[in-house]
Amino acid sequence: MGSLDQRVALITGAARGIGQAIAVRLAAEGADVALCDLRKDWLNETAQKVAGLSRRAEVFEADVSQAAQVQACADGAVAAFGRLDILVNNAGITKDGFLVRMSEADWDAVLNINLKGAFLFTRAVARTMIRQRSGAIVNVASIIGLMGNAGQCNYAASKAGLIALTKSTARELASRQIRANAVAPGFIQTAMTDKLPEEARRKMLDSIPLGRFGTPEDVADVAAFLAGDASAYVTGQVITVCGGMVMA
C-alpha cells in the first residue's frame, strides 16, 4: 500500500516537466489524480503514465489565470472523485527581460499564471477541504523567489508572492487541519538547460555545491513528502530543492 492510498490530488501544469513528475510520483504512492493544463494532448500523456501505475486520472483543460475555468476544473475534480485531498499549484511560465525593458504585458502574464493562478485554485478547493477538515496544499515556488535574479523581476516577484501566499494560507487554514507548504526548486534539468551553451552550463553547475542539476523527480519526491502524512506536523514552510545553492 502507498502512503497516499484513497486520496485524490489535483495538479496544475501537469502536462510536462515537474508537474508530470509530481503527478506520477503521487500516483505511485496510491493517489488518484486530476490533471490540469492548457494542452489536453499533453495531459493525456501524463494520464497514460498514471494509468500505467493502476491509478485513475482525469484531465481538465484550463487557463489557471481565469477564475471561471479554475472553478470548473476544481468542481469537475470533486464531481469525478467525490473528494479532494491534495492541491499542487505547479503551473508557471517565464517571460524574462531586464526591468527597464520589460513590458506590462510580460509582467502581467507571469504574475497572472504563477501567482494569481495559485490563489484562484487555492480559493476554489478550500471549501471542499474545510468540509473534509483535512487537506494538503503544495505550491511550487523557486529559489529565485528567495534570492532574486537579474532579468527575472516578474518571475521573482511571482514566486516570492507565492511563498507569502503559502504562509498566509497555512495560518488561515490550520484550524481546519489543512496544511500549506512550498517547494522551491533550483536549477532543474529540462529541455531548456539541455540547449544551453557549455560555458553557461558550467557556470550554473559551479554555483551548485552538489555539482549537478536537479531532476523533476527530485522535486516530486519533496512534493510527495509534503502531500502525505509523513509531514503531518509541517505547515507554512519552504523547502529548497537546489543542491545547496540556497542555505538558510
Task: Characterize the structure shown.
With 248 residues, this protein is α/β, with parallel strands linked by helices. The protein is built from 9 helices and 7 strands; from the N terminus they run βαβαβαβαβααβαααβ. Strands 3-2-1-4-5-6-7 form a 7-stranded parallel beta sheet, sandwiched between helices. Helix 1 packs parallel to helix 2. The longest helix has 29 residues, at 104-132.
Record field, number of beta strands? 7
Major sheet summary line: 7 strands, parallel
What do the pLDDT scores average to?
96
Radius of gyration: 17 Å
**Amount of helix:** 40-55%
Q: SSE string, helix = H, strand = E? A: EHEHEHEHEHHEHHHE
Low-confidence stretches: none
Broad shape: globular
